[in-house]
């Protein structure tokens, strides 16, 4: 393969990785916003933002496929032109993963807490229900009306 072709591939690869980098900045920003929406219990904006995040994730997958195809002939870990961009992208991916895990942990903890509250408040949920085949069926949350004096 000629050196001109390799140089052109490297340019395209760096461009794709810079696009990934910019997209990861947007994703990280949106993850912070999502975390705040969950804390604020702003479900409408949360759903809108989740759709936007899904779209960004799809775009990232497309960019990643381009990157993989361009990097087949280039060792991106040792190439001095590409390595800094790769390090930056990997760092942002790691940060995104940590933010995602933190949000999942928050949601899981909140869900367990609410499950405990419903198990205590709604006594009929304590009864075990079995299917026709004898398997345990998880009860769904019943409607609860709370009388509140202001």
List the helices and strands and how they pair.
Elements: H1 3-40, H2 43-70, H3 83-121, E1 129-130, E2 136-137
Antiparallel strand pairs: 1-2
Helix pairs in contact: 1-2, 1-3
DSSP summary: helix tally: 3
Radius of gyration (CA) equals 24 Å
**Topology as H/E string?**
HHHEE
Beta-strand portion reads: under 5%
> Structural class of the helices, strands and pairings?
mainly alpha
Write a concise keyword list for the protein shown above.
150 residues; mainly alpha; 3 helices; 3% strand
Task: Provide structural commentary.
Strand 1 (129-130) and strand 2 form a beta hairpin. The mean pLDDT is 82. The chain is an all-alpha fold and 150 residues long. It has helices spanning 3-40, 43-70, 83-121; strands at residues 129-130, 136-137.
Give a nutshell description of this structure.
This protein is mainly α. The protein is built from three helices and two strands.
